[in-house]
Amino acid sequence: MKKIAVVLAVVVLVVSFVSLAFAAGMQKGTIKNVDAKAGTVVFCEEGTNKDVTLKADKAVDLSKVKAGDKVEVSIEKNTLKHMMAAPAAAPAPKKAPVGC
Questions:
Q1: What is the dihedral of CA 46, 48, 19, 88, to 10 degrees?
Q2: Full-prediction pTM beyond 0.85?
Q3: Across all residues in the chain, what is the average pLDDT?
Q4: Contact 85, 71 (CB under 8 A)
């Protein structure tokens, strides 16, 4: 029984580390420019003012993105591996009506 618990604990730890490593690779930011012919995008990471030109992987569809879009990207060695729309910010809670 102890062996099963130890094996299960090791599996949970390995899965946790893998998911953290993947999550750490995603960056939020804004697309500044798209050049579909060249297969490149100019990306600015959230919280910085540094623009980076990235070569898009063949799996990335540049026709679905335009300048100004907020996105989450996965970058590996200046290559854009994955891109998706950034989740929208949660709407502000509505205030309760005041009075009678």
A1: -10
A2: no
A3: 81
A4: yes
Under CATH, which number does the domain 27-85 receive? 2.40.50.320
For β-strands 70-76 and 26-35, DSSP reports them as: antiparallel
* SS3 readout for the chain: CHHHHHHHHHHHHHHHHHHHHHHHCEEEEEEEEEECCCCEEEEEECCCCCEEEEEECCCCCHHHCCCCCEEEEEEECCEEEEEEECCCCCCCCCCCCCCC
Domain ranges of the chain: 27-85
- Whether the per-residue pLDDT at 88 is higher than 50: the answer is yes
13 vs 22, more confident: 13
pLDDT at 67: 94
